[in-house]
């Protein structure tokens, strides 16, 4: 019962470096999401993919790119990391894009940019 | 736009105390409402949800009722345990198509023996 799996769990980057966060789900969900969590701000949506082949910006997309590689996988890329991108990143997925469907989260990726 | 407001924490309680965490929302249409819980070092887990007005979501002794008239979804538990110590997030699911969650800032609960 893997659910949503994201890697790496911890990463330290230097300013200007690039990296990709990987995410995969095994629940045959259509929709996938990337959120970031910052103290006192809850979770904010970075990008989402309602279905394979589509991606859309969320609330805080600047500095990020995403790829919906197939139905299972949804990656988040930081092209040139900045200290402001130090955060905890969560990948999530849900069934049909119907309001009220439960969204399932991965365990998080702790990213520090120095 | 749509938003969720939660009471600020931390909330500190003794074991077996009554818990209320307030949550109010602003939304167009009729959102679904959720409570998620995050234990230290872990991701978010769905605790309970309600999809229409007057619905009551419940799980693990926690309850919340969708109150459209007061735009609220307060979380309650009659007797908390040390193992309930976590951060609790209220969230709504936006209307009009895609299933996106908007979260409150989270409320940290600490329960002492």
Task: Report on this structure.
- The complex is a heterodimer of chains A (114) and B (113).
- Chain A is mainly beta and 114 residues long.
- In chain A, 0% of the residues lie in helices and 50% in strands.
- Chain A contains no helices and 11 strands.
- Chain A has strands at 4-7, 10-13, 19-25, 31-37, 43-49, 56-57, 64-68, 74-78, 87-94, 103-105, 109-113.
- In chain A, strands 2, 4, 5, 6, 9, 10 and 11 form a 7-stranded mixed sheet that branches.
- Chain A is globular.
- With 113 residues, chain B is mainly beta.
- In chain B, a hairpin with a 2-residue loop joins β7 (56-59) and β8.
- The mean pLDDT of chain B is 91.
- Chain A binds chain B through residues 4, 31, 33, 40-45, 48, 50, 56, 58, 90, 94, 96-108, and chain B through 4, 31-32, 34, 36, 42-46, 49, 51, 89, 93-95, 97-106.
Query: So what's the oligomer here?
Result: heterodimer
SS field, number of helical segments of chain A: 0
What global shape of chain A is seen?
A: globular
What is the element string of chain A, with H for helices and E for strands?
EEEEEEEEEEE
Distinct helical segment count of chain B: 0
User: What's the total count of β strands of chain A?
Assistant: 11
What portion of residues of chain A is helical? Answer: under 10%
Strand content of chain B: over 45%
Which descriptors apply to this entry?
heterodimer, A: mainly beta, seven-stranded mixed sheet, 11 strands, B: 113 residues, six-stranded mixed sheet, four-stranded antiparallel sheet, 12 strands, 50% strand
Strand and helix layout:
The complex is a heterodimer of chains A (114) and B (113).
Chain A: E1 4-7, E2 10-13, E3 19-25, E4 31-37, E5 43-49, E6 56-57, E7 64-68, E8 74-78, E9 87-94, E10 103-105, E11 109-113
Parallel strand pairs in A: 2-11
Antiparallel strand pairs in A: 1-3, 3-8, 4-5, 4-9, 5-6, 7-8, 9-10, 9-11
Chain B: E1 3-6, E2 11-14, E3 19-21, E4 23-26, E5 32-38, E6 44-50, E7 56-59, E8 62-65, E9 75-77, E10 86-93, E11 101-103, E12 107-112
Parallel strand pairs in B: 2-12
Antiparallel strand pairs in B: 1-4, 3-9, 5-6, 5-10, 7-8, 8-9, 10-11, 10-12
């Amino acid at each position: 019962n893997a659910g949503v799996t994201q890697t790496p769990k911890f990463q330290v980057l230097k300013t200007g470096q690039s990296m990709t966060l990987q995410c995969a789900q095994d629940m045959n969900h259509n929709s996938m999401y990337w959120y970031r969590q910052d103290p006192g701000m809850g979770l904010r949506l970075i990008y989402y993919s309602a279905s394979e082949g589509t991606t859309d910006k969320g609330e805080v997309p600047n500095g990020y790119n995403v790829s919906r590689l197939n139905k299972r996988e949804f990656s988040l890329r930081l092209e040139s990391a900045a200290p402001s991108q130090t955060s905890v990143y969560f990948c999530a997925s849900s069934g049909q894009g119907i309001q009220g469907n439960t969204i399932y989260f991965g365990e998080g990726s702790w990213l520090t940019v120095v | 736009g749509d938003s969720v407001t939660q009471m600020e924490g931390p909330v500190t309680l003794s074991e077996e105390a009554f818990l209320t965490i307030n949550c109010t929302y602003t939304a167009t249409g009729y959102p679904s409402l959720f409570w998620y819980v995050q234990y230290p070092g872990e991701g978010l887990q769905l605790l309970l949800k309600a999809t229409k007005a007057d619905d009551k979501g419940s799980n693990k002794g926690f309850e919340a009722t969708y109150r459209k008239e007061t735009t609220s979804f307060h979380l309650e538990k009659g007797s908390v345990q040390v193992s309930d110590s976590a951060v609790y997030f209220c969230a709504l699911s936006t209307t009009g198509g895609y299933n996106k969650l908007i979260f409150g800032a989270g409320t940290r609960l600490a329960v002492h023996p």
